[in-house]
C-alpha cells in the first residue's frame, strides 16, 4: 500500500513512475521528498518506526507540517516544496494539489474535508470544518469559511464561488493513470 501511495505521488509530479524519475524527484524536489517520508511514517509496522525520525527532520527542514495521522488519498502534490500547515483532523482526497503558504486548520473539532482532484492555490486558508467538493479550484489568497461545491472555482477573502467552468483544470497527471488501450 505505501509503495502504491508513493508511486501515485511521483506520478503526479512527472507522469512517470520509473526508478530514474523517483531518484531525480527525491533529490531535486522538496515536496516529493517530504511526501515520501510522510507516507512511510504513516505506514503500519516497522516502516513507521524507521521513517519517523527522518519525517521529523524533513518537516523541520521544509516547513511542511502534515501529520502522519492525516488521512490523505492517492496522488498528493505539494507545489514548490511548501511551506504549509495541515491540521491532523483534515481529510484530503485523491489528486490534491497544495500550494505554498496554505493553511488548513481548525481551533476546535475537525478541519476541512477536501474532495478528489482539488487545487488549492498559494496562500490559502481553509478555516474550521469546511468541505471542498471534487474538482474544485481555490484561487490564490483565498480565505475559505464556507463549503465550496464540486466543480466550482472559488476565490476571495472570504471565498465566493466565481463559476463552474473548467473544473479541475489545474490537476495534471491524475492518478490512477488511464490506460490508453482500454476503450
Automatic annotation (TrEMBL):
GO function terms (MF aspect): serine O-acetyltransferase activity
Keywords: Acyltransferase, Transferase
Catalytic reaction annotation: L-serine + acetyl-CoA = O-acetyl-L-serine + CoA
InterPro entries, sorted: Hexapep, LbH_SAT, Ser_O-AcTrfase, Trimer_LpxA-like_sf
Superkingdom of this protein's organism: Bacteria
GO BP of this protein: cysteine biosynthetic process from serine
Pfam families according to UniProt: Hexapep (PF00132)
Enzyme class: transferase
Enzyme Commission (EC) number: 2.3.1.30
PANTHER family named in the record: SERINE ACETYLTRANSFERASE
Family as reported in the entry's similarity comment: Belongs to the transferase hexapeptide repeat family.
Protein name: Serine acetyltransferase
Lineage, top ranks: Bacteria, Pseudomonadati, Pseudomonadota, Betaproteobacteria, Neisseriales
